[in-house]
Design goal:
single chain, mainly beta, 2 helices, globular
Amino acid sequence: MIKALVLRYRERERMLSALHLLLLVLQTLGPNQVHIQVPRTSSAVMIDGIFSDGEWQRAASIDVPGTAKLYFQRSTDFVYIAVEYTNSLSGIVDLYVSPREGEVFDLHASAKLGERQLRGNAFPNWSWWNNRDWTANYSHVDSFEKRTFLPAPIREYQIRYSRFGSSAWRVRFELTAMGVNNETQAHVMFPHGTTDNSTAGWLQLNLE
């Protein structure tokens, strides 16, 4: 009897937690504007491309149908964003962040890390390993001869909150899903229909 009550209590807690996250995740303020209230976490996150127990359990999440699932959470000092590819062995991510009007940064994670800032209507060429106040897990070589990499279906970003300062970031994702031989399986922009040189339609992360 006691065991049954405990199981019912735990199931109720899981349902309440799921409902709480659902209410946090999506607050649609218009047909092209989606706000995500980013929850706070006290759990330490290892940026290793692995979802360890407890690391992302309080994160808000949103699905990119057929491609990936996105996760968002923050601590006092950092904002954490993760991409979990749901139908691919690996994936490349370009995370676009606009902390304020007129500023757009592209934070890239693949076998290399790099960032660049929109100038006018175009981005400059890449300068690799210039990431400042942020990091992400990157792909490791499987075979130099075959130019293949070990599977990396999860990309975890850790971005220092003070790097951008603003309490509301607009974000966009360019997701490149990769197959077993590093071939491109899908190339998806999310939110759909958005571009990298305009923040119209991007997600907004509320960090307060």
